[in-house]
Design brief:
This protein is 28% helix and 7% strand. It has 4 helices and 2 strands. It has a two-stranded antiparallel ribbon with strand order 1-2. The longest helix has 8 residues. It is globular, with a radius of gyration of 13 Å. The two termini are 23 Å apart.
């Protein structure tokens, strides 16, 4: 079975999929996109200010300005369960 996100990338003209760095505790792949509403609560809770939004309005981690302290504030702020406390972060 093929990955649904790979098909979505192909239909959007993205022929080489790149891994998107989601915040710590993010659900994997399509499950994250379905659970996350793009509310921005995780970004507002991030003391390091490294959580931004991608082109689809979903949170991504940008380490160019700082690093993650793994404080867990973003996962606790998530109202939808798209970020789960204690989940591994690749």
């Amino acid at each position: 079975m093929t990955d649904p996100s790979a098909r979505r990338d192909l239909l959007r003209g993205r022929f080489t999929a790149t891994a998107v760095p989601r915040p710590p505790g993010a659900l994997s792949g399509l499950a994250f996109g379905e659970a996350c509403t793009g509310c921005g609560d995780c970004a507002r809770a991030c003391g390091a200010a490294i959580i931004l939004r991608d082109g689809e309005g979903l949170p991504v981690v940008d380490m160019r300005e700082g690093g993650c302290t793994f404080c867990g504030d973003c996962t606790r702020a998530c109202p939808t369960g798209a970020l789960m406390p204690g989940a591994p972060w690749p």
